[in-house]
Amino acid sequence: MKPGRIGTFRYFISIFLVVILFLLANHLAQAQPRPKGYLFIIGGGNRPESMMKRFVEMASRSGSGRIVVLPMASATPDETGRSLVEEFKQLGAREVAYYNFTRKEAENYSNARLLAESGGIFFSGGVQTRITEAILDTPIHNMIKELYQKGAVVGGTSAGAAAMSELMITGDEVRKPEEGHEFETIEAGNVIVARGLGLIKSAIIDQHFATRKRHNRLISLIAGHPEIVGVGIDESTAIIVNPDETFEVIGHRNVIVYDSGRARVEVRSDRALSIRNLVMHILLEGERYDLKKRKPL
Fold it and tell me: Running DSSP on this structure, what letter comes out for residue 91?
């Protein structure tokens, strides 16, 4: 085989293995009851008051209605936590608290009880890997998943949005570009990902999407993961994911969905991608999308 064909062959073998693993995970997931809760995923930027009031209203329907803010993604978590607590109180939330858990604190089972009976969990913006480094696979993480199963709304903005998916964009790339030249290519194996919180398994989330011109990185990533769709959420915009795996767009801008499920993908020897029949949807407020059927409603 020529080098370019060898690269393409290896690429498709890797895709095949990913699909098999995804189908196995999906089969195991079907044994779990469908969550009764909602995901409230915000693309970052300014948050319209009407949007955040809706989060407060949704949180009031489950458990005690209490909202817990988790600001670990922020470089100034205590300041961010206090600010979000004040924001939610001004929007009418009856009870709000924030916890800046370290990894050691998150591994303490007694601390998970601090979240018990909460109606809403909200992750701040910042750096998404700080969230997973602090709570992934800990009693805190398990409590959040339990609350989501029972009916709570789990929300997040920016980094807090990216952390929602099973496969999480870290914001880094294999290339080491000069500042201001990040993600200028569409190529295989460049976008660095890690395990996210796994609250949404059928999609990978990107944020600040159109504003920060993040199409290249999501297209590059979704080309190698035909088993999921890529959902790019712009600033001042959110999706609300329902228990039936449909989502509704709310806010001022748009949500872009990329689907490579039926695309023909080839990788050149320099890792440049050829992608044919990639499906793209641009959705605005009030429009809905079915993650299971992979089509707008």
Answer: T
